Amino acid sequence: MIKLENVTMQYKASSRPALKDLSFEIDKGEFAFLIGPSGSGKSTFFRLLLKEDRPTSGDIWLGEFHVNKLKAREVPKLRQSIGCVFQDFRLLQKKTVAENVAFALEVIGRPRSTIQRVVPEVLEYVGLEGKHDRMPNELSGGEMQRVAIARAIVNRPLVLLADEPTGNLDPETSEEIVDVLDRVNRRGTTVIMATHDRHIVDAMRRRVLEFDNGQLVRNDQQGVYGIG
Ligand SMILES: Nc1ncnc2c1ncn2[C@@H]1O[C@H](COP(=O)(O)OP(=O)(O)OP(=O)(O)O)[C@@H](O)[C@H]1O
């Protein structure tokens, strides 16, 4: 599903590569944690998958897409196959919960009838029934992240990239958010979650990819956070 072969990423402004000769695969339907110290290359990996940057060398595949060879006109299709959630939620502050989710479908030209059908479904799926008309500033952090997840999955992406999705949440709320991601994964979406939260990694016992200095230093099938 996702395959990297000898991927190196050297930013022009940097003296050392952000990713060094990286090779690994993540299978369809996996839940994988990406761990490693700040600056080890986790966000760079996400940027390369989204084709927001080009690797200096090496090959990247995601589903049917040969990402580093993709033509510019095919990039929107790639990005529609990838949902993203972030630590800081990134909701549209002037839109309601339902409008935030609907907007993700409007921008890709989905018909209004589809939007009216699927938005309530996905909001119920993430546990936000009864909150459709709230504004983001009327939500808790956990609820904001549920909206962000709803928006990321409403178009049924192949892959969900979660970049420290629990970084701003207390431990109990973090667990609830990981439960939602787990359900999304069990529905068939491949989930990759970058995190510094050892409790979550240890509780889930899923694939653990550990980055250090742009290299893959550990790739465990049912891993733990480890001593790092
Ligand atoms: N646009 C850029 N230009 C130059 N160097 C960059 C750029 N983006 C990232 N880097 C460098 O690449 C390396 C990897 O950074 P990256 O953001 O991928 O790490 P990370 O593992 O996601 O860190 P964090 O856990 O803090 O999010 C770092 O040394 C960083 O300074």
From TrEMBL:
ABC transporter domain location: 2-227
Topology in membrane: Peripheral membrane protein
Signal peptide start and end residues: none
Keyword set, alphabetical order: ATP-binding, Cell cycle, Cell division, Cell membrane, Membrane, Nucleotide-binding
GO biological process per UniProt: cell division
Record carries keyword Cell cycle: yes
Membrane-crossing residue ranges in chain numbering: none
Main subcellular location of this protein, as a coarse class: membrane
GO molecular function, a single term: ATP binding
Superkingdom of source: Bacteria
Cell location: Cell membrane
One Pfam family linked to the record: ABC_tran
One GO term describing the cellular component: plasma membrane
Classification via SUPFAM superfamilies: P-loop containing nucleoside triphosphate hydrolases
Oligomeric form and interacting partners: Homodimer. Forms a membrane-associated complex with FtsX.
Family: Belongs to the ABC transporter superfamily.
Function: Part of the ABC transporter FtsEX involved in cellular division. Has ATPase activity.
Full protein name: Cell division ATP-binding protein FtsE
Organism: Gordonia paraffinivorans
